[in-house]
Every structure is written in C-alpha cells, then in structure tokens.
Write a structure and sequence with these properties.
alpha+beta; 4 helices; 10 strands
C-alpha cells in the first residue's frame, strides 16, 4: 500500500477535502444523524491521505483552540471531520491519518490535550487508538442559541501533556 500523507492549511485544503466529505456525509445522510443541526468550526489544518492512485481517501481536521476546563484556561486541539471513502475503509487509512494528526500536535508542543466527538458506534475505534471517554459536560457556541451544552456526540480525549477525564469543558467557540 503506497500512500502519501499531507498536513495542509485548513482553508487552502478545503477544495481538496470537500468532495470526500460530501461523499461520506451527503445531506440526506447528515439529516438523519444526531448532529444534523450543529454548526461546526472550520479546520485549521487538514490531514489528507492519498492512495497509490493519488486519490484522497481519508481526511482528518485539526482545530486549535483555547478552552476552559473547570474554569482554567488550557490549549486544546480538536480532531474532527474524520472521514474515509467507502471503498477505502478497513485498510488503516483513518489510523494513519489520526496518527499523523497526533504526531503533528506533539511536534507543535503547543496544546495540552486533544478532544474529539464521535457517535457511540465509533467509540471502540478511537478507544483502541488511545482515546479516553470524557466523563463530564461540554459547552459550545451555536450561532442561533449562544452557549449551549453540547451532547449531540460523545467526547473523547487524548493526552498530549495532560487531558482532563471529567469536569466541565467550555470550547469557547463552535464545536469541531
């Protein structure tokens, strides 16, 4: 399996990522998901995995944010928009992309922990890759509602320096 991994500026790489994300989450599929009405942030960085035919088969978004955990400011990195093309699943692409994202964050040395949100059916995948369930409350901003409790999808954390396991995290902005 010959692959290429790129970590690119989020806005600049949007045109490359958009077809994959639209194919994995077309509007009729998103409409049935628990997060269908959520407004999400745009990624600061994008990990794009290309197969040996030079086609993008996997995407992971990276988000940088100062958050509040139990009233203390911390630097968090969000992981979101994890998507693998249907015909490329179960080949390790998502694991490679997640590893590249975590490696990028470790090299930056600027964040305390990584945080992602996933549906219960995907939790085992992330837990097998070192993510831990966050047992607490998450708050985020939504354009028409202001600050709201974000419980549409379950939070998981990954230690970079020190990840909280419980308490209250305020994303201080849109979720990812």
């Amino acid at each position: 399996m010959g692959i290429e991994i790129d970590v690119l500026n989020g806005d600049a790489a949007w045109k490359q990522a958009e077809p994959l994300l639209g194919a994995v989450w077309p509007p009729h599929v998103v409409a049935k998901l628990p997060w269908a009405d959520v407004v999400f942030a745009d990624a600061d960085l994008r990990v794009l995995v290309r197969d040996d035919a030079d086609e993008i088969v996997c995407h992971v978004g990276i988000f940088h944010r100062e958050v509040s955990w139990d009233g203390r400011r911390m630097r968090a990195a969000g992981i979101g928009g994890v998507a693998t093309r249907d015909d490329a699943r179960r080949r390790g692409y998502a694991s490679v992309a997640l590893n590249a994202a975590i490696h990028t964050l470790r090299e930056e040395r600027s964040v305390d922990f990584a945080l992602l949100f996933c549906e219960p059916r995907h939790a085992a995948f992330y837990i097998a890759r070192g993510w831990k369930a966050f047992d607490g409350e998450i708050y985020a901003e939504q354009p028409d509602a202001g600050r709201v409790r974000f419980d549409a999808i379950a939070p998981h954390v990954h230690d970079l320096k020190r990840a909280p396991r419980q308490g209250v995290i305020d994303l201080c902005g849109l979720p990812w």
